[in-house]
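Class prep. Write one:
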Amino acid sequence: MERINEVALEISRERVRGASWSSEAMAKAILNEANKNTISCKDIDIITKIVTDANPLMGSLYNLSLIMQNACNQGKTLEWATNKFLSYMSWARKSIVEHAAQLFKEEINIFTMSNSSNILDVVARYKEKINKVLVGESQPGGEGAYFATQTKSLGIDVELYPDSAVSSAIEKSNVILIGADNITIDGCLFNKVGAKNVAIIAGYYGKPVISVFEPFKINPIMKCNNEIALTRSYLVEGFGQLTYRLFDELPNNLIDGILSVNGLTDVSQSSLKFLHDSFVSWFNTN
């Protein structure tokens, strides 16, 4: 189980790669150990604790644990569960990209922040319909700068903004796309710190905020206003340690819609429950 613990530690320290990468890396580590017969369903309680403790605010890790637990309860194997989870990830990402065509009726400017792999897939696919991508730097961590570099390499016109200047970028945009690390079943969205400011500014300018995510990021047992607060710190010269929360919690009245495997929809509890139920049932039919 050494490699699983190593990946869990890497996830807990990661600053740039988000929920999709975390669950994929963990699923591959578990699959590798299961293929070597070093772990099995008899270890499921230990494994699920390691997985969820790596980052308790990542819905993707909760749902990876859920699918493994369900598989073991049904007499299936960890190999089956992790293989299926990875297959679902691939299918979901492709589905989101296909449905994103609904956003591109005309050439548009997009604002984003942080480093969503789903949003990168979308802009790569529809780059001919994009006039410009405007990106918030997303400090501390600089995930937005990383995203901007990747987007620029695709030949897309990109403008990178310091976080203190994102209001001017949002004003020039047609739509705001943000990712999600976790979505509670009653519609609160957790994303990189700074996302709440972006959504509030977007509301001021009347720009739609669309969150792009796969259903396995919906946590069916978590509700809004939860008390989990993951923090990090860095040293400010002359002041000392500055401690900040890793994630903002956005209530659903700051989100205009979601783009997921069924296309554009609202952020109601019924929509989220339907998406999550469909995710779980996918493993019984595929």
Summary: Residues 78-99 form the longest helix (22 residues). The CA atoms of residues 24 and 86 lie 7 Å apart. The chain has a mean pLDDT of 95. DSSP finds ten helices and 13 strands in the chain.
